[in-house]
Amino acid sequence: MSNSxxxxxxxxxxxxxxxxxxxxxxxxxxxxxxxxxxISVLVSGKELLSTIKQNPRAILNADIIGKGxxxxxxxxxxxxxxTHKIVHVDFHQLNMNESMDSKVTIHFSGDPVGVxxxxxxxxxxxxxxxxxxxxxxLSAFEVDISKLGIGDQLLxxxxxxxxxxxxxxxxxxxxxxxxxxxxxxxxxxxx
Length: 191
Known about the structure:
Blueprint: E1 3-9, H1 15-23, E2 26-33, E3 37-44, H2 45-54, E4 59-64, E5 68-79, E6 86-93, E7 100-109, H3 113-116, E8 120-123, E9 127-132, E10 140-144, E11 153-155, E12 166-167, E13 174-179
Parallel strand pairs: 1-4, 2-6, 7-10
Antiparallel strand pairs: 1-3, 2-3, 4-5, 5-6, 7-9, 8-13, 9-12, 11-13
């Protein structure tokens, strides 16, 4: 938990006040968890973006004014559909002694043999759901696909996470495959 983030409690602000704070670089957020209930907070937009760039699934040490330091995870980010600016964030307060469910991003590395032979790489799934202790949570899991040939595929069941991480996603879900490139079909001429 090397990353820290400062969260300032916000109380009874009107919609116009919240919009004004957004213009000043503050992002409204909520922190919820069994130990603290639900707390409305504000977070610096710059600090939040920096954290997301480093590791969007990092466990953060949140300094919540009036509540002390708590381990939190970014649970959800809402963005404006036009500008893509962050308009709201949900933080989940963690108990470091209990397992948790979270998504882990899958990074595919290597140039597949099948693509070099003319096949087409088709990625079907970019993340999987896992259960683990907070200290075991990975920001991403790298999968080498360089040996995949035309017609080969990887399923969730083919992933081998280290001990302590249980994969919750359906084991039969397709992660990636190398498809045969199809020549354009000739028009069928009626007889």
